[in-house]
Write a structure and sequence with these properties.
Chain B is of the alpha/beta class. Helices cover 41% and strands 15% of the residues of chain B. In chain C, strand 5 and strand 6 form a beta hairpin. Classes of the chains: A alpha+beta, B alpha/beta, C alpha/beta.
Amino acid sequence: MEKFEQDLNEEALARRRKKEPSRKKNNLTVVRVYCKGCGLCVDICPTGTLMLEDNHESKYGVSVRVDAPDHCIGCKQCELRCPDFAIFVNYDKNEEEP
Amino acid sequence: MRDYERYIRYRTFPTPWCPGCGDGTILKSIAMAFAELKYDADDIVVVAGIGCSGRIPTFFNTNTLHTTHGRALTFATGIKLAQPDKHVIVISGDGDALAIGGNHLIHAARRNIGIKMILINNGIYGMTGGQVSPLTPQKFFTETTPYGNIEPRFDVVDLLVAAKASFVARETVNRLIPLKQVIKKSFQHRGFSVVEVISNCHINLGRKNRMKNPIDMTRWIATKTVTQPEYDKLDPEARRHKYPVGVFVEDKERLEYTDLYYQHIVPAAKAEAEREAARRAGRKK
Amino acid sequence: MIKRQVLQGNIIVAKAAIDAKCDFFAGYPITPSSEIAQYMSRELPKLGKDFIQMEDEIASLGACIGAALSGRKVLTATSGPGFSLMQEHLGMAVMAEIPLVIVNVMRGGPSTGMPTKPSQADIMQARWGTHGDHPIIALYPAFAEQLYFETIRAFNLSEKFWNPVIILLDEVIAKAHEDLTIPRKKDISVYWEKTKKIEDLNIYDRKIGQNPPRVDFFKGYPIHIDGLEHDKHGWPTTDPDTVQKMQTLRMQKIYHYLDEIVKFEEYEMDDAEIMLFSFGVSARSALAAVEMARAEGIRAGLFQALTIWPFPKKALAERFRRVKKVLTVELNMGQAKYEIERVAPDDVDKRALLRANGVPFTPAEVLAAIKEFPR
């Protein structure tokens, strides 16, 4: 991992330590084959739930990991930000289209 | 499945853009706007030119058209004139909208034809390797300005206001909900609408200007972003370095081109045809 | 009631376009073709159809292609400098297989040239103007009735073969007023295949000799049209086998149907010893010269090419078995004559009457050239 990716992880950890785990349970779905490890979701998550990790199967070398799932507050900023449709918040495959 | 995923052609994934490129975020924002407005996928056509932004239509599950460099607005004009009640979206980059396509931009604005344009401003020609564009800030280094860029950038909003566009807005890829909302608002506008989106090309512009990862560059964009009231308080020198966001022009009174055509030209022509027929009938007697 | 009228060449082409059910015109004014745009601006709105004057010729073809993809029959008209500007989009229409008709009224060139004088110097540009390997159909009518019927045929060919068709004219026949009897609607046949409902993205899938119905946007299935090289779904690709197959299909879709596309007119050719090969305004002078030569006992005949491209190679080869003297009459510094040199066997005496000063040949000048052939 490059330096800026390590910095991102440290900043995420720092944000996480300031907060208690979320009262409401939210789940995160990651589509690992689409993730390019850009780190934008890690940067934008207000509670530091996400981190980057090395992934040797991906040609980009890094992928996102849901490091602290109980800290996710369901704000959906990661899903809105992700350019690759690789992360979804409270995603239900069987959800009917509105 | 999310409602906006209906508008995505997953069979063409993964996307070809660099990790962290704003194009993917904009693709998603537009799809979300379609979903909230409940458009039928076959009633939409997305037209784009050449460049990294020109690859966006491939991933939309709507009618899509990938055209020549800078001329997307002309194709969209033909489509809108031929099928006025369909939704015609144009996605353009720096060069497509302001360099080779600059002429078509001002004419589309002047005509007020009901095309919805998303102008992606990343300050560089990304796909061809990082050459300077009309939107590159001054003093930046690019592949064709190795000693620094001496040309000032266009202010897209000023240009469009002068061309009498009826809806002009600007947002950035950092401000996700406002971006989706302003795109939705521009789709609901009847005339010609332009949303300029400040995006990040950290690989081609950022790398030569000390912002080589998406985090540094998006944070730089955030420092350049100001709201309109803040912008008004700045002096002219400071204004040159900032991008004010929001809606600048929203003129709902101005008639759209195809409306004018069918309200004014076609009835006048048909009246003329009737007069000619009456004259011919009169001559026969 | 059959109407006989005196009409300008440009107007004949415009009237024929409307009779062929053309319903979209996007153009830019340029001498000597502006009359077509002006006529369309008056007549198309009367039928509730669309006319727009765009900001330049590049925009004109762009708007035409957009409208063609939205279910319209499109026409645009221009001259030399505008035709040069249109080349990029002409190539895109060939690549994406889009029907459209372009009228190029040839004037003195190159560059601004002589806007009010004729030439026939865009023959090669009509074939090779745009970059890349591309088939093209170019028609060149000369007489009033040909102007009318060849325009209708241009629309039919472009619809049937999904390819742009160029109608070449020159400043003289476009601006000259002649009398023409407008045919009745039932004497014209217009090819217009309504798009069927599209079931999937497989829009370019076909074999040689088989043309599926045309595809449009908004017909029930979202499709992708691209200027990049693509496979049968329209997706961009660089896979060598797919690309070679698509290139071959695009060429073969025209060259498989040469008998249907190629057309020419012959005058006094049955027993001719000297063949005149000509087109457009030069063909009209050549025809008069042939009649003058026959009056003097010289066995001359005229082969007027109505399709310049694809070049009428097979028909000419048949005639060259019998005729051993050919005179190419063209108002340029030599363009079609190279095709004749390529097509005619070595024992044929190939000569050319050429001029590029904006003055059409008189029949006497052509007759003098005929007489230069040794008896």
